[in-house]
C-alpha cells in the first residue's frame, strides 16, 4: 500500500502539467466553437490521439497508479479545459471499461483497439445501458438478447437512449436482458461490431450543456451478433445465471448486488473529478474577474460579499477534491466502502460544480450571463454531473442505505 501523503509525486506532477498544457493550449481555445456547433470535435480527439492522451494505454497507466490519483487527476485537468470536449475524449473509456470488466482476454484484444482507432483514423465507442423507461431504475430494462443456437448468434432488439457517442461509435457495448425473471442480475453485455445491420441512431439530443459531446438514442432491430460478442462468453453467463436463480430461490442475491455496488463506488469518483475540473475552471475565471473589475472605485473583490463567496467556492472545491481522492485511494487499495464514500464524492463534487459555476456567473454580473465569458458554458455543463452516472438523489439513496442498512426508498 502506498504511504499516505497529501502531495503528488514527481511523476504525477509531470503528467498533471502535461495534461494541463493540453487542456489549456488545445481544449480550452476550441471550447466555445464546439459548444456552438454541437458536434463531436474530431480534430481535437485526433490531436489527443497524436500526443497519446486518447488511448487505452494512457488510461491504463493512470488506472494502475498505486495511489489511485492517476484517473482523478487526469479527469480534473481535461474537464478544466472543457467538459464537452473532454467527454468526447474520455467517453470511449466508458465502453472500454465495460469490456475490460467483463470481457475475455481475446475480446479485450480484439475490440478495444477498434474502439479507439489510431491517430490517423480515430474512432469512438459507446456504452448503451439507459433506456427511455430504465434510467435510475436499471432493472426495468427492456432490450432483449435472445440466443439463436442454430447459428450461434445473439439477436438484440430494443431502444437505448442517452448514449454518449451512440450511433457514431465504431463499436457499441449494449447491455440487454437475457433472463427477465432475474431483474438486473439477468442482464448481459454485448459487443455490436462496426457496421452491424439493424443498429441505427435514433434522435440526437440537443442539450443544455456538454454540447460538444454527442448524445443519442440507439435503435436495435434484429441485430445479430456472433456468439463471441457476448462479453465473458456463454459458459460464464450460464454459470452466473444459474447462481442467480439459486440465490433467488433461496431469497438471497446480496453478494451479487454488493459486487455491483463496489464497482460503482470505484467508478463514481472519476465523475466527481470531472466536476471538480469544471468547478475549478469557473472559480479561476471568477477570481481573476473579481480582482480586475472595478465598481465604486475599487475592485469588486474588496467587498466581503464577493470575497467571501470566492472563499466558499474554493473551500468547497478543495473539499470535493479531497473526497474524490479519498474514494479513489480506497478503490485502488481495496478498502471497503462502508459509508458509500465513492457515491459521497460524486454527490458532493457534482453539487459543488453546479453551485460554484452559478456563483461564478453572479460574480461576473452581466458578462457572466453572456457567451463572451466561459462561465455561462461551464454552468450549463456542470448540470450534467448531478444527472449521469447516477443522479444526486440516487447517490443519497445509496449513501443512506449503506449507512443505515435499511431498504430506504
Ligand atoms: C448527457 C448524458 C449522457 C449520458 N450518457 C450515457 C451513456 O453513455 N450511457 C448510458 O447508458 N446512459 C447515459 N446517460 C443516462 C444517465 O445515466 C441517466 O440519464 C440517469 O441515470 C438518470 O436516468 P433518467 O434520465 O431516466 O432519469 P430518471 O431515472 O427518470 O429520474 C428522474 C428524476 O427522478 C429522480 N428519482 C428517480 N428514482 C428515484 C428514487 N428512487 N428516489 C429519489 N429520486 C428518484 C431522479 O434522481 C431524477 O431527479 C446519459 C445521460 C445524459 C443526460
TrEMBL record:
Cofactor: FAD
InterPro entries in alphabetical order: Acyl-CoA_DH_CS, Acyl-CoA_Oxase/DH_mid-dom, Acyl-CoA_Oxase/DH_mid-dom_sf, AcylCo_DH-like_C, AcylCo_DH/oxidase_C, AcylCoA_DH/ox_N, AcylCoA_DH/ox_N_sf, AcylCoA_DH/oxidase_NM_dom_sf
Keywords assigned: FAD, Flavoprotein, Oxidoreductase
Keyword Oxidoreductase: yes
Keyword hit for Endoplasmic reticulum: no
Domain Acyl-CoA dehydrogenase/oxidase C-terminal: 259-403
All residue ranges annotated as the Acyl-CoA dehydrogenase/oxidase N-terminal domain in the record: 9-115
Entry GO MF terms: acyl-CoA dehydrogenase activity; flavin adenine dinucleotide binding
Pfam families reported in the protein's UniProt record: Acyl-CoA_dh_1, Acyl-CoA_dh_M, Acyl-CoA_dh_N
Domain Acyl-CoA oxidase/dehydrogenase middle: 126-223
Domain of life assignment: Bacteria
UniProt family annotation: Belongs to the acyl-CoA dehydrogenase family.
Protein name stated in the entry: Butyryl-CoA dehydrogenase
Organism name: Streptomyces davaonensis (strain DSM 101723 / JCM 4913 / KCC S-0913 / 768)
